[in-house]
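pasting BED-type domain-containing protein for the record, 304 residues
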Amino acid sequence: MSSTAGGSGLGEGSKEQSVETDKPLWLHVTKLGKTFEGGGNVSFKCNYCGGIYKGSYSRVKAHLLKIAGHGIKMCPKITTSQLIEINKQVDEAECRIKRALPKEISLPSTHGSSHASSSSVRVDHSLSFRNEGYQTKKRKGIASSPLEKAFSLQQREELDGEIARMFFSAGLPFNLARNPYYKNAFSFACNNNLAGYVPPGYNALRSKLLERERAHIETLLEPTKGVWKEKGVSLVCDGWTDPQRRPLIKFMVVIENYPMFIKAVNCEREYKDNFFITNLIKEVIVMIGPSNIVQAITDNAPVC
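structre below
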């Protein structure tokens, strides 16, 4: 019993120590508990002025380092010597985080250039080759030729390398290169002056951009939905398996030449008997409108 408890405590302590190493300013406040705002927001008490505040680590940093514009009062009790020491701790933590980040390597050499991309900081492995007596081959005169300058051949090959590495490093299927929107995105970016543009990040893709795209698609589908009541629709459902091998049941409505996807239900850990499938079909009928349904079509499985 004691050894188990000791092992658990060690694991928790290591995790807490790792967090404090990356964010040392948590050691200068006392956490009082999480807030209702969610995320990384907590209620904390400053160990210097005794004030109680709410927020994430960025607010703790703004309070202790006396940074204005973060919606929190600057600590009035920290002395100059304490402020210098806290700044030193923050700088050391940021250096540790930067050293832990994965290092980017240079792109393969193209016919127009043997050096790495200048768009970001990279590890120049060509130095080690030169030190060992290996020299990278260069074609004379191409980098400064009129053809190279007119068509930006070096920049084109460098962009090809960046796009290819995106596929390789993220395990993206090569079939994505056939997606017209993939081509449209890069064509639009290259044909417009978008200096300083930063592609949307993780949160933007999964929230506002996804919601905006769905609302747009719903608007485009309104004319098709408008004729459901006049002509009626066929409700079609079928079992399917996605790439993660999850069992799905898909629902679509069909009217003349306009099939429309309604939804897919993940049936993991569900007993797919006739009652379960019937209830799913009923839910979709209510969603579409019972008066709009002409017939329901399923596959020929015995349970259907």
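The chain is about 45% helix and 15% strand.
The first helix runs from residue 2 to 22.
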